[in-house]
Amino acid sequence: MEYWCVSKMKCSWLLFLMMIGSLIVCGIEGGCIQEERNALLQIKTSFIHSYVPSVDPLPSWVDDGGDCCDWERVNCNTTFRHVTDLSLRNMMGMPKRNLYEYDTCQRINWPLNISVFLHFKELTSLNLSRDCLDDGIVKTGLGRLSSLKKLQTLDLSDNSITNVIFPSLGALNSLRVLNLSSNELKGYFPALGMSLKNLEILDLFYNYMEGFDQISLLKKLKVLNLRWNGFNERFITSLSALPMLKSLDLNGNELSQWSFRVEELLHLTNLEELDLSGNKLNVTPNIQGKGRFSNECIGLSRLKKLKSISLGDNNFNKSIISCLSALPSLNTLDLSSNHLRGSFPIQGMF
């Protein structure tokens, strides 16, 4: 008597392989996952029904049996062809920062059901910037994206999102990059650090923020962009709790009444880029010469990794130059639009 299987174990193994094979055949069509293809087509349908564009923004997104990994704005991994990177930036094709853009977003918004992204189990990066999104994304399941354990980058910049979004963001503990620039955020960034403990890059450019409840919880932060907000001198003291910070941008905030206290930055020993432009900072007479400022200049040498510093559009005079000469790694310096007079002391500067 002949047997196809030598043992029950081998039979079970053969059956298992056959099941896996049929799952692959059923789940992958045209080189990508069928479930993910359907979700992509659902996203396109949602956008077209909301905006009715004159030109198809996603011409390759067609259910014709082709490989959805080859569609524009989509990247997949090479093994199982899962979608890993999805960029839906500026779907309406709006020009950069003009009246037409704001008028369009006031007349129409994209009621995107954010839970549609739950179909992309391997998603690592999602870009939804400049899409006229509002707080509706919270109601449609933003917090549920926490089930996407590999999601590391989320870009929601250039939308109309308010502080309502913060509790949902707190659930996304896998994030390493979060871009919330150019929205309508106000006041204080709440204590989400326990959930966002892996965050390395945070961009809050062009909002109405004034501070953080517990910024010390974001210990892994390496890049912090706070340009064009309302942070004042009291916020600077809290930065010492960010030992890994490499880039800090405070351009265009409200530090104008702050006497430049260098010692508040000396704890940031990993800092490589610093922008304090547009704050009307100055070196007041009582801390020049042999006073406190002289001692602080000596302390600047502790910032051994600082390569770039921007101090443009302030009220500094020539005394700041000798202070900056204490920075051993400095190779880029911006002192435009200050009160510098006479010759520039190049010798010993670099």
Explain what this protein looks like in three dimensions:
The protein has helices at about 10-25, 35-50, 100-105, 135-140, 165-170, 235, 290-300, 320-325; strands at about 30, 30-35, 75, 85, 125, 155, 175-180, 185-190, 200-205, 210, 225, 245-250, 275, 310, 330-335. The protein is an alpha/beta fold. The longest helix has 20 residues, at about 10-25.
Quickly describe the structure.
The protein is an alpha/beta fold and 350 residues long. 21% of the residues lie in helices and 14% in strands.
Q: Mean pLDDT, nearest integer?
A: 85
Q: Which radius of gyration do the C-alpha atoms yield?
A: 26 Å
Output the helix-strand order: HEEHEEHEHEHEEEEEHEEHEHE
The total count of helices amounts to 8
- What is the 3D form? elongated
Number of strands: 15
Sketch the major β-sheet: 11 strands, mixed
Strand content: 5-15%
Task: Specify the structural class.
Answer: alpha/beta
What spatial order of strands do you see in the largest sheet? 3-4-5-6-7-9-11-12-13-14-15
N-end to C-end Cα span: 89 Å
Oligomer designation? single chain
Give the low-confidence spans.
1-6, 18-28, 285-294
Helix content: 10-25%
SSE layout:
Elements: H1 8-27, E1 28-29, E2 32-33, H2 34-51, E3 74-76, E4 83-87, H3 99-107, E5 125-127, H4 136-139, E6 153-155, H5 166-169, E7 177-179, E8 186-189, E9 201-203, E10 208-212, E11 223-225, H6 233-236, E12 247-249, E13 273-275, H7 292-299, E14 308-310, H8 319-324, E15 332-334
GO cellular component, one term: plasma membrane
GO biological process, one term: defense response
Signal peptide: 1-30
